[in-house]
Amino acid sequence: MGKVLVIVDDISDVLVPLGKLFKTQGYEVHTFLNPLAALHFIRNNPADVVLSDYRMPQMDGVTFARVLRNIGWTGSLFFMSGYIAELNQQELMGLGINGILEKPFNAVELIEFVTRTLQEEAEALLRSPASGMPNTLQS
């Protein structure tokens, strides 16, 4: 079985196609419209990767990332946002964000970006601890 991926977005028109797309790539996918439900799932189940919208009604991305890290989750975390210029990349780096994806994005580019970033991180861990800005996919 592939990596376990959790996708969080408050818009089902984004969430459903992304879930299907990643399933075709071998990921075990769990989708959530609410970040609180996603956090509950991650507390009780293994998850390797989280792909989350940054702006959601229940909580913003920084809060979501802080809670994830505070519960001890150490997986790879990617944010999606249509407001990438507003994000504080230094703050996100401090929270262990692995990448930021600008909406709208091309599905093929998204898969390649997440896969490439995960591969680069695995290779970097073999060499030395990574230190740098999160990767960014801008359309």
| Percent in helix | 40-55%
Strand order of the largest sheet: 2-1-3-4-5-6
Enumerate the spans where pLDDT stays under 50 for 5 or more consecutive residues: none
Q: What share of residues are in beta strands?
A: 15-25%
Which homologous superfamily in CATH is the superfamily?
Response regulator
**Straight-line distance between termini:** 31 Å
CATH class: Alpha Beta
CATH level-two architecture: 3-Layer(aba) Sandwich
- CA-atom Rg in angstroms: 14 Å
Mean pLDDT score: 85
The overall strand count is 6
Q: Judging from the principal axes of the Cα atoms, what is the shape?
A: globular
Could you tell me the CATH topology label. Answer: Rossmann fold
How do the helices and strands follow one another from N- to C-terminus? EHEHEHEHEHE
Can you characterise this structure?
- By secondary structure, the chain is an alpha/beta fold.
- It has a single domain (4-137), classed as 3-Layer(aba) Sandwich (Rossmann fold).
- It is 43% helix and 22% strand.
- Strands 2-1-3-4-5-6 form a 6-stranded parallel β-sheet, sandwiched between helices.
- The longest helix is centred in the last third of the chain and has 21 residues, at 107-127.
- The radius of gyration is 14 Å and the shape is globular.
- The model has no long low-confidence stretch (mean pLDDT 85).
